[in-house]
Amino acid sequence: MLRIFFLVGVLISYNISAQTVCGGSDFPVNFDSDVEQFACSRTSAIFNNIKKFQSHYTPDANSPILTVSVALHIWRDGNGNGNYLDNPADRAYLTNLFETVMSNGFKYNSSPSDPLPGVNDLTDTRIRLKLQDIYYYDDDTYYLNGVSNNAKKQLNARALELHPECLKSINFHFSGNTSVGHASQHTSGGSSTNSPRNTFIWSGYTGNGLGDGSAPLMTNTLAVKVMLNHELGHAFGLCHTDDEPACKEKIDPNSLDFLSDIYAPPYTYPDGGWHLDPTSPSNTATNNVMGNTAAAAYLSPLQIGRIRRTLSQHYLLQSYTSGYSEVPLEVDVDETWDFPHKIYQDVVVKSGARLTITCVTTFVSQAKIIIEPGAELILDRGRLTKAKFEDYWQGVYVAGNSSAGQTEADQGKISIINGGEISYALDAISNTNVDSQGNWLWGTTGGIIHCDNAYFLNNRRDVQLLAYTPPYAKNESYNAFFKNCTFLRREDSYS
Ligand SMILES: [Zn+2]
Questions:
Q1: pLDDT digit string, tens, across residues 181-204
Q2: Which helix (H) or strand (E) holds 370?
Q3: Same domain, 273 and 129
Q4: Distance from Cα 166 to the centre of ligand 1, integer Å
Q5: How much distance in Å is there from the Cα of 237 to the middle of ligand 1?
Q6: Residue 299 and residue 340 in one domain
Q7: pTM for this prediction
Q8: How close is the Cα of 240 to the center of ligand 1, in Å?
Q9: Which residue range forms the structural domain that includes residue 400?
Q10: Are residues 286 and 377 in the same domain?
Q11: What is the CA(230)–ligand 1 centre distance, in A?
Protein backbone atom coordinates (compact mmCIF):
# COMPACT_ATOMS: atom_id res chain seq x y z
CA MET A 1 0.00 0.00 0.00
CA LEU A 2 1.38 3.34 -1.01
CA ARG A 3 0.49 5.80 1.66
CA ILE A 4 0.38 9.40 0.68
CA PHE A 5 -0.24 12.10 3.23
CA PHE A 6 -1.18 15.63 2.50
CA LEU A 7 -0.64 18.85 4.34
CA VAL A 8 -3.67 21.01 4.87
CA GLY A 9 -3.81 23.80 2.35
CA VAL A 10 -0.61 22.85 0.62
CA LEU A 11 -0.69 21.81 -2.95
CA ILE A 12 1.39 18.80 -3.63
CA SER A 13 2.34 17.83 -7.11
CA TYR A 14 5.19 15.50 -7.62
CA ASN A 15 6.53 12.90 -9.88
CA ILE A 16 7.08 9.40 -8.63
CA SER A 17 8.88 8.13 -11.71
CA ALA A 18 11.29 5.60 -10.33
CA GLN A 19 14.09 5.91 -12.79
CA THR A 20 15.23 7.37 -16.03
CA VAL A 21 16.78 5.14 -18.62
CA CYS A 22 18.55 6.23 -21.74
CA GLY A 23 17.88 4.13 -24.78
CA GLY A 24 19.74 0.90 -25.14
CA SER A 25 19.34 -2.56 -26.52
CA ASP A 26 18.90 -4.04 -23.08
CA PHE A 27 15.85 -1.99 -22.34
CA PRO A 28 13.27 -4.42 -21.00
CA VAL A 29 10.14 -2.92 -22.49
CA ASN A 30 9.33 -2.73 -26.15
CA PHE A 31 8.33 0.90 -26.49
CA ASP A 32 8.29 0.70 -30.22
CA SER A 33 5.83 -2.11 -30.68
CA ASP A 34 3.25 -0.91 -33.10
CA VAL A 35 -0.39 -0.60 -32.42
CA GLU A 36 -1.28 -3.14 -35.06
CA GLN A 37 0.71 -5.83 -33.29
CA PHE A 38 -1.34 -5.53 -30.15
CA ALA A 39 -3.79 -8.44 -30.12
CA CYS A 40 -7.32 -7.15 -29.70
CA SER A 41 -10.34 -9.41 -29.54
CA ARG A 42 -12.98 -7.16 -31.11
CA THR A 43 -15.73 -9.22 -29.51
CA SER A 44 -17.34 -6.53 -27.39
CA ALA A 45 -20.91 -5.41 -27.78
CA ILE A 46 -19.89 -1.80 -28.34
CA PHE A 47 -17.64 -2.82 -31.23
CA ASN A 48 -19.97 -5.29 -32.86
CA ASN A 49 -23.13 -3.25 -32.42
CA ILE A 50 -21.80 0.24 -33.00
CA LYS A 51 -18.11 0.98 -33.51
CA LYS A 52 -17.48 -1.29 -36.47
CA PHE A 53 -20.18 0.28 -38.61
CA GLN A 54 -19.34 3.02 -41.08
CA SER A 55 -22.64 4.72 -40.22
CA HIS A 56 -21.31 5.40 -36.72
CA TYR A 57 -18.58 7.58 -38.20
CA THR A 58 -20.71 9.68 -40.53
CA PRO A 59 -19.94 13.12 -39.13
CA ASP A 60 -22.19 15.75 -37.65
CA ALA A 61 -21.46 19.33 -36.68
CA ASN A 62 -19.66 18.23 -33.51
CA SER A 63 -17.42 15.63 -35.11
CA PRO A 64 -13.72 16.39 -35.11
CA ILE A 65 -12.35 17.88 -38.30
CA LEU A 66 -9.76 15.37 -39.43
CA THR A 67 -6.75 16.72 -41.29
CA VAL A 68 -4.66 14.36 -43.39
CA SER A 69 -1.10 15.29 -44.28
CA VAL A 70 -0.15 14.96 -47.95
CA ALA A 71 3.26 15.46 -49.57
CA LEU A 72 3.78 16.05 -53.29
CA HIS A 73 6.82 14.54 -54.98
CA ILE A 74 7.91 15.76 -58.42
CA TRP A 75 10.20 13.41 -60.34
CA ARG A 76 12.38 14.87 -63.11
CA ASP A 77 15.37 13.84 -65.18
CA GLY A 78 18.90 14.45 -64.01
CA ASN A 79 18.86 17.91 -65.54
CA GLY A 80 15.71 18.98 -63.74
CA ASN A 81 13.47 18.72 -66.79
CA GLY A 82 10.50 16.63 -67.76
CA ASN A 83 8.10 17.74 -65.08
CA TYR A 84 7.14 20.75 -63.00
CA LEU A 85 10.05 23.07 -62.36
CA ASP A 86 11.39 24.17 -59.03
CA ASN A 87 10.70 27.84 -59.60
CA PRO A 88 8.30 30.27 -57.95
CA ALA A 89 5.73 30.01 -60.73
CA ASP A 90 5.49 26.23 -60.67
CA ARG A 91 5.60 26.06 -56.89
CA ALA A 92 2.81 28.60 -56.73
CA TYR A 93 0.86 26.61 -59.27
CA LEU A 94 1.23 23.37 -57.35
CA THR A 95 0.45 25.00 -54.03
CA ASN A 96 -2.65 26.59 -55.48
CA LEU A 97 -3.60 23.33 -57.12
CA PHE A 98 -3.36 21.62 -53.80
CA GLU A 99 -5.21 24.21 -51.77
CA THR A 100 -8.01 25.18 -54.09
CA VAL A 101 -8.53 22.05 -56.11
CA MET A 102 -7.36 19.03 -54.16
CA SER A 103 -8.02 20.14 -50.60
CA ASN A 104 -11.23 21.99 -51.26
CA GLY A 105 -12.31 19.21 -53.58
CA PHE A 106 -12.13 16.82 -50.69
CA LYS A 107 -13.65 19.20 -48.18
CA TYR A 108 -16.71 20.39 -50.04
CA ASN A 109 -18.97 17.56 -51.02
CA SER A 110 -21.14 18.01 -54.10
CA SER A 111 -24.75 16.96 -54.40
CA PRO A 112 -25.36 13.55 -55.91
CA SER A 113 -26.29 13.39 -59.57
CA ASP A 114 -28.55 10.45 -58.76
CA PRO A 115 -29.94 11.03 -55.26
CA LEU A 116 -31.67 8.31 -53.30
CA PRO A 117 -34.79 9.28 -51.34
CA GLY A 118 -34.21 9.63 -47.63
CA VAL A 119 -30.46 10.13 -47.76
CA ASN A 120 -29.25 13.19 -45.86
CA ASP A 121 -26.30 14.21 -47.95
CA LEU A 122 -23.39 16.10 -46.43
CA THR A 123 -21.93 19.28 -47.84
CA ASP A 124 -18.79 19.02 -45.70
CA THR A 125 -16.84 15.82 -45.15
CA ARG A 126 -15.15 17.39 -42.10
CA ILE A 127 -11.97 15.99 -43.61
CA ARG A 128 -9.17 18.30 -44.70
CA LEU A 129 -5.93 17.81 -46.56
CA LYS A 130 -2.78 19.57 -45.41
CA LEU A 131 0.16 20.07 -47.74
CA GLN A 132 3.30 19.03 -45.95
CA ASP A 133 5.62 20.19 -48.71
CA ILE A 134 6.56 19.85 -52.35
CA TYR A 135 9.68 17.80 -53.02
CA TYR A 136 11.68 17.75 -56.25
CA TYR A 137 13.94 14.95 -57.45
CA ASP A 138 16.38 15.17 -60.35
CA ASP A 139 16.89 11.49 -60.79
CA ASP A 140 17.55 9.71 -64.07
CA THR A 141 17.10 6.35 -62.37
CA TYR A 142 13.55 6.73 -61.15
CA TYR A 143 11.89 9.66 -62.85
CA LEU A 144 10.22 7.52 -65.53
CA ASN A 145 8.92 4.96 -63.05
CA GLY A 146 5.44 3.74 -63.80
CA VAL A 147 2.68 2.02 -61.96
CA SER A 148 4.10 -1.41 -61.23
CA ASN A 149 4.34 -2.26 -57.58
CA ASN A 150 8.09 -2.32 -57.71
CA ALA A 151 8.27 1.03 -59.49
CA LYS A 152 6.00 2.61 -56.93
CA LYS A 153 7.96 1.19 -54.05
CA GLN A 154 11.17 2.55 -55.53
CA LEU A 155 9.76 6.06 -55.73
CA ASN A 156 8.41 5.97 -52.24
CA ALA A 157 11.47 4.35 -50.72
CA ARG A 158 13.76 6.94 -52.33
CA ALA A 159 11.54 9.78 -51.18
CA LEU A 160 11.49 8.49 -47.62
CA GLU A 161 15.21 7.94 -47.64
CA LEU A 162 15.80 11.57 -48.54
CA HIS A 163 12.90 12.99 -46.54
CA PRO A 164 12.08 10.78 -43.57
CA GLU A 165 9.52 13.29 -42.37
CA CYS A 166 7.31 12.08 -45.22
CA LEU A 167 6.58 8.94 -43.19
CA LYS A 168 3.81 10.93 -41.60
CA SER A 169 2.17 11.86 -44.89
CA ILE A 170 0.36 10.26 -47.74
CA ASN A 171 2.83 10.64 -50.55
CA PHE A 172 1.58 11.66 -53.97
CA HIS A 173 4.15 11.09 -56.68
CA PHE A 174 4.15 12.93 -60.01
CA SER A 175 6.21 10.76 -62.33
CA GLY A 176 7.82 12.08 -65.49
CA ASN A 177 6.57 9.11 -67.44
CA THR A 178 4.42 10.48 -70.25
CA SER A 179 3.27 7.12 -71.52
CA VAL A 180 0.89 6.46 -68.68
CA GLY A 181 -1.11 9.65 -68.97
CA HIS A 182 -3.25 10.09 -65.93
CA ALA A 183 -3.16 6.53 -64.80
CA SER A 184 -2.94 6.36 -61.08
CA GLN A 185 -2.81 3.72 -58.47
CA HIS A 186 -2.80 3.34 -54.80
CA THR A 187 -1.62 0.94 -52.23
CA SER A 188 -2.72 0.49 -48.69
CA GLY A 189 0.87 0.11 -47.59
CA GLY A 190 0.76 -2.82 -45.27
CA SER A 191 2.95 -4.09 -42.54
CA SER A 192 5.10 -6.55 -44.46
CA THR A 193 8.75 -5.71 -44.28
CA ASN A 194 9.23 -5.31 -48.02
CA SER A 195 6.47 -2.77 -48.34
CA PRO A 196 6.90 0.91 -47.68
CA ARG A 197 5.28 1.78 -44.43
CA ASN A 198 3.23 4.60 -45.69
CA THR A 199 0.45 4.80 -48.16
CA PHE A 200 1.11 6.54 -51.38
CA ILE A 201 -0.45 7.39 -54.66
CA TRP A 202 1.23 7.35 -57.97
CA SER A 203 0.28 9.62 -60.82
CA GLY A 204 1.62 10.52 -64.22
CA TYR A 205 1.57 14.27 -64.59
CA THR A 206 0.92 14.72 -68.26
CA GLY A 207 -2.23 14.94 -70.29
CA ASN A 208 -4.57 17.75 -71.18
CA GLY A 209 -6.06 17.84 -67.75
CA LEU A 210 -9.22 16.30 -69.05
CA GLY A 211 -7.89 12.81 -68.86
CA ASP A 212 -6.86 12.50 -72.48
CA GLY A 213 -3.37 11.94 -73.77
CA SER A 214 -0.41 14.25 -73.58
CA ALA A 215 -0.57 18.01 -73.58
CA PRO A 216 1.19 20.97 -72.00
CA LEU A 217 1.21 21.17 -68.25
CA MET A 218 -1.14 23.33 -66.27
CA THR A 219 -3.84 23.53 -68.86
CA ASN A 220 -6.57 22.09 -66.73
CA THR A 221 -6.77 20.80 -63.22
CA LEU A 222 -9.95 18.80 -63.42
CA ALA A 223 -8.35 15.43 -64.00
CA VAL A 224 -5.82 15.97 -61.24
CA LYS A 225 -8.54 16.82 -58.79
CA VAL A 226 -10.71 13.88 -59.76
CA MET A 227 -7.74 11.56 -59.71
CA LEU A 228 -6.40 12.68 -56.37
CA ASN A 229 -9.71 12.45 -54.64
CA HIS A 230 -10.50 9.12 -56.25
CA GLU A 231 -7.16 7.65 -55.25
CA LEU A 232 -7.40 9.04 -51.76
CA GLY A 233 -10.81 7.41 -51.62
CA HIS A 234 -9.13 4.09 -52.32
CA ALA A 235 -6.45 4.76 -49.75
CA PHE A 236 -9.16 5.52 -47.22
CA GLY A 237 -10.92 2.22 -47.82
CA LEU A 238 -13.37 2.84 -50.67
CA CYS A 239 -13.81 0.77 -53.82
CA HIS A 240 -15.47 1.66 -57.11
CA THR A 241 -19.18 2.25 -57.11
CA ASP A 242 -19.43 1.25 -60.77
CA ASP A 243 -18.59 -2.17 -62.20
CA GLU A 244 -14.81 -1.60 -62.36
CA PRO A 245 -13.63 -5.11 -61.54
CA ALA A 246 -10.32 -4.37 -59.82
CA CYS A 247 -12.02 -3.17 -56.66
CA LYS A 248 -15.74 -2.71 -56.60
CA GLU A 249 -18.19 -2.21 -53.81
CA LYS A 250 -20.21 -5.24 -52.83
CA ILE A 251 -23.88 -4.98 -53.59
CA ASP A 252 -24.99 -7.12 -50.70
CA PRO A 253 -27.35 -5.65 -48.13
CA ASN A 254 -26.01 -8.14 -45.59
CA SER A 255 -22.35 -7.19 -45.91
CA LEU A 256 -20.82 -4.98 -43.26
CA ASP A 257 -19.92 -2.12 -45.55
CA PHE A 258 -22.88 -2.19 -47.89
CA LEU A 259 -23.57 1.32 -49.18
CA SER A 260 -27.31 1.48 -48.67
CA ASP A 261 -27.24 5.19 -49.50
CA ILE A 262 -25.96 4.44 -53.02
CA TYR A 263 -27.53 1.16 -54.06
CA ALA A 264 -31.25 0.51 -54.08
CA PRO A 265 -33.25 -2.30 -55.63
CA PRO A 266 -32.85 -3.73 -58.23
CA TYR A 267 -29.24 -3.43 -57.10
CA THR A 268 -27.28 -2.95 -60.29
CA TYR A 269 -23.99 -1.15 -60.80
CA PRO A 270 -24.21 2.23 -62.50
CA ASP A 271 -22.31 2.84 -65.73
CA GLY A 272 -18.72 4.00 -65.45
CA GLY A 273 -16.62 5.85 -68.00
CA TRP A 274 -14.55 9.00 -67.97
CA HIS A 275 -16.62 10.84 -70.59
CA LEU A 276 -20.06 9.78 -69.46
CA ASP A 277 -22.34 12.60 -68.36
CA PRO A 278 -23.95 11.63 -65.03
CA THR A 279 -26.87 13.95 -65.71
CA SER A 280 -27.72 12.37 -69.02
CA PRO A 281 -30.81 10.12 -69.15
CA SER A 282 -29.06 7.99 -71.73
CA ASN A 283 -26.77 6.32 -69.17
CA THR A 284 -26.78 5.33 -65.50
CA ALA A 285 -23.41 6.90 -64.64
CA THR A 286 -23.14 8.94 -61.43
CA ASN A 287 -20.89 11.70 -60.16
CA ASN A 288 -19.65 9.58 -57.26
CA VAL A 289 -15.94 10.13 -56.55
CA MET A 290 -15.49 6.38 -56.91
CA GLY A 291 -17.75 6.11 -59.97
CA ASN A 292 -15.10 6.60 -62.67
CA THR A 293 -16.46 9.65 -64.43
CA ALA A 294 -14.79 12.99 -65.01
CA ALA A 295 -17.63 14.65 -63.12
CA ALA A 296 -16.76 12.81 -59.91
CA ALA A 297 -17.38 15.07 -56.93
CA TYR A 298 -19.78 13.33 -54.55
CA LEU A 299 -19.33 11.01 -51.59
CA SER A 300 -22.29 9.47 -49.82
CA PRO A 301 -22.69 9.77 -46.03
CA LEU A 302 -21.72 6.12 -45.60
CA GLN A 303 -18.65 6.54 -47.78
CA ILE A 304 -17.59 9.51 -45.68
CA GLY A 305 -18.29 7.46 -42.56
CA ARG A 306 -16.10 4.65 -43.83
CA ILE A 307 -13.25 7.06 -44.51
CA ARG A 308 -13.52 8.50 -41.02
CA ARG A 309 -13.65 5.02 -39.53
CA THR A 310 -10.44 4.26 -41.40
CA LEU A 311 -8.86 7.41 -40.00
CA SER A 312 -9.86 6.27 -36.54
CA GLN A 313 -9.09 2.57 -36.68
CA HIS A 314 -6.49 1.90 -39.37
CA TYR A 315 -3.07 1.98 -37.75
CA LEU A 316 -1.40 3.45 -40.80
CA LEU A 317 -3.93 5.96 -42.06
CA GLN A 318 -4.67 7.28 -38.59
CA SER A 319 -1.03 8.19 -38.19
CA TYR A 320 -1.25 10.73 -41.04
CA THR A 321 -4.25 12.38 -39.47
CA SER A 322 -4.61 15.11 -36.88
CA GLY A 323 -7.54 16.97 -35.40
CA TYR A 324 -9.33 17.70 -32.17
CA SER A 325 -12.89 18.51 -31.20
CA GLU A 326 -13.63 20.23 -27.92
CA VAL A 327 -16.86 18.25 -27.79
CA PRO A 328 -15.97 15.18 -25.73
CA LEU A 329 -16.82 11.56 -26.36
CA GLU A 330 -19.03 10.67 -23.41
CA VAL A 331 -19.21 7.11 -22.11
CA ASP A 332 -22.40 6.85 -20.09
CA VAL A 333 -22.96 3.09 -20.02
CA ASP A 334 -20.57 0.24 -19.31
CA GLU A 335 -18.37 -0.36 -22.33
CA THR A 336 -15.36 -2.51 -23.21
CA TRP A 337 -12.96 -1.14 -25.78
CA ASP A 338 -11.33 -4.24 -27.24
CA PHE A 339 -10.51 -2.67 -30.59
CA PRO A 340 -7.71 -0.25 -31.51
CA HIS A 341 -8.61 3.31 -32.31
CA LYS A 342 -7.35 6.84 -32.28
CA ILE A 343 -9.27 9.46 -30.33
CA TYR A 344 -9.59 13.02 -31.64
CA GLN A 345 -11.44 14.42 -28.62
CA ASP A 346 -11.55 14.06 -24.85
CA VAL A 347 -13.18 11.00 -23.34
CA VAL A 348 -15.44 11.56 -20.34
CA VAL A 349 -16.50 8.49 -18.38
CA LYS A 350 -19.77 9.62 -16.90
CA SER A 351 -20.87 8.99 -13.35
CA GLY A 352 -22.24 5.46 -12.98
CA ALA A 353 -20.42 4.10 -16.05
CA ARG A 354 -17.44 1.80 -16.25
CA LEU A 355 -15.10 1.86 -19.22
CA THR A 356 -12.85 -1.19 -19.57
CA ILE A 357 -9.99 -1.02 -22.07
CA THR A 358 -8.28 -4.23 -23.16
CA CYS A 359 -6.72 -2.94 -26.38
CA VAL A 360 -4.82 0.15 -27.51
CA THR A 361 -6.38 3.58 -27.49
CA THR A 362 -4.24 6.39 -28.85
CA PHE A 363 -4.81 10.09 -28.35
CA VAL A 364 -4.01 13.28 -30.15
CA SER A 365 -1.94 15.68 -28.11
CA GLN A 366 -4.86 17.82 -26.96
CA ALA A 367 -6.91 14.89 -25.70
CA LYS A 368 -7.41 13.51 -22.20
CA ILE A 369 -9.67 11.19 -20.23
CA ILE A 370 -11.81 12.47 -17.39
CA ILE A 371 -13.33 9.95 -14.98
CA GLU A 372 -16.25 11.54 -13.22
CA PRO A 373 -17.10 10.82 -9.57
CA GLY A 374 -18.89 7.49 -9.44
CA ALA A 375 -17.32 6.33 -12.71
CA GLU A 376 -14.49 3.87 -13.26
CA LEU A 377 -11.82 3.31 -15.88
CA ILE A 378 -10.21 -0.12 -15.95
CA LEU A 379 -7.08 -0.79 -17.97
CA ASP A 380 -7.07 -4.57 -18.14
CA ARG A 381 -3.89 -5.15 -20.12
CA GLY A 382 -5.06 -2.17 -22.17
CA ARG A 383 -2.80 0.62 -23.28
CA LEU A 384 -3.37 4.36 -23.38
CA THR A 385 -0.76 6.20 -25.34
CA LYS A 386 -0.09 9.03 -27.72
CA ALA A 387 -0.88 8.62 -31.36
CA LYS A 388 2.05 8.09 -33.67
CA PHE A 389 3.68 11.34 -34.82
CA GLU A 390 1.73 13.27 -32.20
CA ASP A 391 3.15 15.04 -29.17
CA TYR A 392 2.48 13.68 -25.72
CA TRP A 393 -1.20 13.36 -24.87
CA GLN A 394 -2.72 14.93 -21.78
CA GLY A 395 -3.39 11.89 -19.56
CA VAL A 396 -6.12 10.63 -17.22
CA TYR A 397 -7.87 12.87 -14.71
CA VAL A 398 -9.60 10.95 -11.95
CA ALA A 399 -12.12 13.46 -10.73
CA GLY A 400 -13.36 13.35 -7.17
CA ASN A 401 -15.08 15.31 -4.50
CA SER A 402 -12.76 16.84 -1.94
CA SER A 403 -15.59 17.17 0.53
CA ALA A 404 -16.57 13.52 0.48
CA GLY A 405 -14.97 10.35 1.70
CA GLN A 406 -13.21 8.01 -0.68
CA THR A 407 -16.03 5.70 -1.63
CA GLU A 408 -16.51 4.65 -5.23
CA ALA A 409 -19.88 6.38 -5.25
CA ASP A 410 -18.30 9.75 -4.49
CA GLN A 411 -14.99 9.56 -6.33
CA GLY A 412 -13.77 8.66 -9.77
CA LYS A 413 -11.66 5.52 -9.91
CA ILE A 414 -8.96 4.14 -12.14
CA SER A 415 -7.81 0.54 -11.94
CA ILE A 416 -4.84 -0.73 -13.91
CA ILE A 417 -4.30 -4.49 -13.89
CA ASN A 418 -2.64 -7.28 -15.86
CA GLY A 419 0.06 -5.16 -17.41
CA GLY A 420 -2.13 -2.22 -18.35
CA GLU A 421 -0.10 0.75 -19.50
CA ILE A 422 -0.19 4.50 -19.72
CA SER A 423 2.55 5.97 -21.84
CA TYR A 424 3.63 9.23 -23.46
CA ALA A 425 1.28 11.33 -21.38
CA LEU A 426 2.12 14.72 -19.93
CA ASP A 427 0.50 13.68 -16.65
CA ALA A 428 -0.46 10.01 -16.80
CA ILE A 429 -2.78 10.03 -13.77
CA SER A 430 -3.99 13.05 -11.80
CA ASN A 431 -6.37 12.85 -8.87
CA THR A 432 -8.34 15.92 -9.88
CA ASN A 433 -10.62 17.23 -12.55
CA VAL A 434 -9.60 19.97 -14.96
CA ASP A 435 -11.45 22.61 -16.94
CA SER A 436 -11.40 22.91 -20.70
CA GLN A 437 -8.14 24.86 -20.49
CA GLY A 438 -6.48 22.11 -18.47
CA ASN A 439 -6.56 24.06 -15.20
CA TRP A 440 -7.03 22.08 -12.01
CA LEU A 441 -10.50 22.44 -10.55
CA TRP A 442 -10.41 23.07 -6.83
CA GLY A 443 -12.60 20.78 -4.78
CA THR A 444 -12.34 17.86 -7.19
CA THR A 445 -9.50 15.88 -5.67
CA GLY A 446 -10.05 12.47 -4.14
CA GLY A 447 -10.01 10.16 -7.16
CA ILE A 448 -9.20 6.54 -6.32
CA ILE A 449 -6.17 4.92 -7.95
CA HIS A 450 -5.59 1.16 -7.82
CA CYS A 451 -2.62 -0.08 -9.82
CA ASP A 452 -1.51 -3.69 -9.74
CA ASN A 453 1.00 -4.78 -12.38
CA ALA A 454 0.76 -1.49 -14.24
CA TYR A 455 3.25 0.15 -16.57
CA PHE A 456 3.99 3.86 -16.69
CA LEU A 457 6.28 4.44 -19.63
CA ASN A 458 7.87 7.61 -20.95
CA ASN A 459 5.38 9.91 -19.31
CA ARG A 460 6.42 13.42 -18.40
CA ARG A 461 4.88 12.78 -14.99
CA ASP A 462 3.49 9.41 -13.98
CA VAL A 463 1.28 10.30 -11.05
CA GLN A 464 0.23 13.75 -10.02
CA LEU A 465 -1.48 13.99 -6.66
CA LEU A 466 -3.05 17.16 -5.39
CA ALA A 467 -4.09 17.77 -1.82
CA TYR A 468 -7.20 15.94 -0.66
CA THR A 469 -8.23 17.00 2.79
CA PRO A 470 -11.84 16.33 3.67
CA PRO A 471 -12.54 17.81 7.07
CA TYR A 472 -13.06 14.48 8.78
CA ALA A 473 -10.29 12.53 7.11
CA LYS A 474 -7.12 14.42 7.92
CA ASN A 475 -4.03 12.26 7.99
CA GLU A 476 -5.83 9.14 6.91
CA SER A 477 -4.25 7.10 4.18
CA TYR A 478 -5.23 8.03 0.66
CA ASN A 479 -7.18 5.42 -1.27
CA ALA A 480 -4.48 4.63 -3.78
CA PHE A 481 -2.01 1.83 -4.24
CA PHE A 482 0.70 0.85 -6.67
CA LYS A 483 1.68 -2.82 -6.49
CA ASN A 484 4.19 -4.48 -8.80
CA CYS A 485 4.22 -1.40 -10.99
CA THR A 486 6.88 -0.29 -13.40
CA PHE A 487 7.80 3.37 -13.79
CA LEU A 488 10.26 3.96 -16.61
CA ARG A 489 11.31 6.74 -18.86
CA ARG A 490 13.52 6.66 -21.88
CA GLU A 491 14.98 9.70 -23.52
CA ASP A 492 13.77 9.05 -26.99
CA SER A 493 10.71 9.48 -29.05
CA TYR A 494 7.97 7.01 -29.75
CA SER A 495 7.59 8.12 -33.32
ZN1 LIG B 1 -10.02 3.53 -58.80
A1: 444 555 444 333 333 446 666 666
A2: strand 368-371
A3: yes
A4: 24
A5: 11
A6: no
A7: 0.86
A8: 6
A9: 35-51+326-488
A10: no
A11: 6
